[in-house]
Structure formats: C-alpha cells, structure tokens
Recover the amino acids of this structure.
DNA sequence: GCGGTATGCCTAA
DNA sequence: TAGGCCTACCGCG
C-alpha cells in the first residue's frame, strides 16, 4: 500500500534491520546494477535509510545512494537470513546478518549521487511526516490557486506522501468536495488539513495500514476490521451517512467522495467536469447483510 | 489462460 | 489527456 506511510515505515524498519551492516546487494532480476556500489565480494555498508514523501533513499558508504520509488506495484518482503531463494522478479535483494529485504515491482530503483538525491527532494513539497516540514508554501499555493483541492493534495510538488486513499479520506473528514477550488478554502481549514494528513500518515506508519476511522486501538485490542478502515475510499456507501459513494476521474485518477457529506459549496468555473458515477467499492453498508463481493 | 484492476508517475502530443 | 511501465491477484470462460 505505497502511500507516504508505507515508505516511512520501510525506512524505519530497514534502518533498524540493516543499518550499519555490510550487506550483500544483488538484483536477481538483473534490472538493477549493483556495480559501482559493492566491493569485489558484492557487499556494501548501509549507513542510513531516509524517506521523503513516496521516495526512499538507502545511503551507503562513499555517499552512494540507492533511490527507490515503489510506484503502484512495488513491494518489500522481509525474511530471516539466510533467506529462501528470491523470486525471479526480485529487483533488489539486501542481505543483512539477521534479515533479508527483497524489493519487487518498483517504478524506480537506481544508484544516485548526493546531488541527484537533492535534486529529487527539491522537486517535492513538504512532507508532513518529516520534522523539517514547513507547510507554508503549500498553504500559499492553495490559497492563490483555482486548482481543485482534490488535485492539489495529490500533487507531490505541493505536499508529498498523500495518495489516492488519504486524499479521499482527508477531504471526507473535512467535508470538502474534491472539486473545491483551493482559493475557496479558509486558512483555518487548510491548517486543519495539514494536521489531519500528518496525524493519519503517522497512524499509518504505526499500524502499517491506512485507518481513518476509529481512534487508534489500545495495545492488544481488536484490529479495525477490513471494510471499516475508511469512510469513502473503496466503499460503495459512505460510512458516515450510508448514502452512495460517487467516483469520477480527476487528473486521470479516480476520486471517491460522498456528495451528501461533501457538497460542492462553490461552483468552479467551467462546470464541464466528468459526470460522477456510483462507486464499485468492495465494502457495502456497515450494518446489514454481508458485504457485497467485488464487482 | 486472459483481462481487468490497483494505494503512482513519467512522457509525448 | 492518453499511453506506457512496474507486478500480483482475482474472476471468468
């Protein structure tokens, strides 16, 4: 589930499991070339792992950096060392003393320099999960832009780490229609949006999944069941009002929203937007008969 | 076995 | 805006 929370959690876990160690680095699939990173025996020492939005940076000795972006399909798996043989699609394998991390399906997995890493992070907006994040440029951009807030939230150069699920959930929690022009949103709402994104992402890092309903469970208590972890994303009906969840294409991504909870207050200019349709979400109503199966 | 789908993003036009 | 790309999984025939 690669939104920002997945990346920050991976950075934390991988640094804990592999940091400071001499790792055997390989690419069973052959599409990543570790030459230039590893010594004659195929090893390199990992210093730290840094997350920035949806980007991961594995900083090795000699300032050599492996840049990973999971895209839509990328996944990590973690096994005890010595691990079973990797699957043929494994782009990157990092073998440490106790754990082996495999990476499959990333959009990006490349060796970069410090300068290249900086050029990547310079293109990104503030990341609410980073202590050094300054939301002011995000506020300023939104305040003077007619861009729909649903598009601005997904624009990684304005705020990074938010993906399609968090977008839908944050807008629902704030009662904002995705087409609301940024300039129509009060500053106090924008500040609340930043705090909400940060809180939800932080919770996602801790729970390793996206949960925007229920308060965080106490240790040992029951997990929030599948199908109750979101208000509108992936649902047919709104968890709050039980009305239909609608979807439409906004900047080539399907956005989920509840027209009752998220009315469009201010009509944007040029009302030629895509006609919303009823969502085909996996989850039915919270109460009532068993959830309708997909499709 | 095939097609559709998914939490992303880049490029060409 | 459309198309391409990365992979796994599921329903269907």
């Amino acid at each position: 589930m690669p939104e920002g929370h997945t990346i920050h959690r991976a950075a934390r876990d991988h640094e804990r499991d592999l940091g400071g160690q001499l790792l055997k680095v390989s690419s069973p699939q052959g599409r990543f070339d570790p030459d230039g990173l590893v010594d004659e025996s195929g090893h390199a020492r990992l210093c730290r792992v840094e997350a920035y939005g949806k980007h991961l940076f594995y900083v090795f000795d000699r300032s050599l950096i492996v840049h990973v972006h999971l895209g839509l399909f990328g996944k990590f798996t973690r096994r005890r060392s010595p691990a079973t043989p990797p699957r043929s699609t494994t782009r990157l394998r990092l073998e440490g003393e106790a754990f082996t991390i495999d990476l499959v399906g990333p959009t990006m997995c490349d060796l970069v320099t410090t300068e290249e890493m900086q050029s990547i992070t310079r293109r990104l907006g503030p990341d609410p999960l980073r202590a050094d994040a300054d939301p002011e440029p995000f506020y300023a951009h939104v305040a003077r832009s007619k861009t729909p807030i649903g598009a601005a939230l997904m624009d990684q150069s304005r705020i990074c780490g938010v993906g399609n699920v968090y977008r839908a959930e944050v807008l629902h929690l704030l009662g904002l229609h995705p087409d609301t022009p940024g300039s129509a949103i009060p500053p106090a709402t924008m500040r609340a949006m930043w705090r909400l994104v940060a809180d939800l992402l932080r919770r996602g890092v801790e729970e390793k999944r996206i949960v925007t309903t229920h308060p965080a469970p106490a240790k040992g208590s029951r997990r929030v069941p599948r199908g109750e972890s979101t208000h509108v994303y992936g649902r047919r009906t709104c968890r709050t009002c039980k009305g239909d969840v609608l979807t439409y294409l906004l900047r080539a991504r399907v956005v989920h929203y509840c027209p009752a909870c998220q009315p469009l207050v201010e009509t944007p200019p040029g009302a030629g937007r895509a006609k919303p349709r009823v969502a085909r979400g996996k989850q039915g109503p919270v109460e009532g008969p068993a959830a309708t199966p997909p499709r």
About this structure: The CA atoms of residues 160 and 178 of chain A lie 17 Å apart. Residues 1-3, 6, 54, 69-74, 107-108, 154, 156, 163-166, 210, 233-234, 253, 294-295 of chain A lie near DNA strand B (CB under 10 Å from a C1'). Helices of chain A lie at 4-18, 114-122, 136-143, 149-152, 164-174, 187-207.
